[in-house]
Fold this sequence. Notes:
Oligomer: single chain
Distance between the termini: 51 Å
Strand content: under 5%
Structural class: mainly alpha
Helix content: 40-55%
Amino acid sequence: MVTFELDGTAALTNREKSLLSEAKKLPVVYNEDSPEMTDNMEKAFLAARKAKPYRGEPLTLYVSAATIEKAKGMGEDYISILGQLLDKAVSEYRVIP
């Protein structure tokens, strides 16, 4: 898999624009690695997106080893859990004068 992220300043060449135009005309090809989505699959996909929307900004934090070990005990998705906890803490934070 190749991942490419446009930085907003990149400009496509005429060749790249042409290739994209031609690619839009090609039919979608399904196979065992990429099957056509059934109605149930689509519903599951949408439910998963709703439950865990892809938004936010990547963040690097340094926390104690004890915190990491405790978080790992919360399950395989402990990083997501830590993100939710941080979101909740920030939303409830109040400055005490």
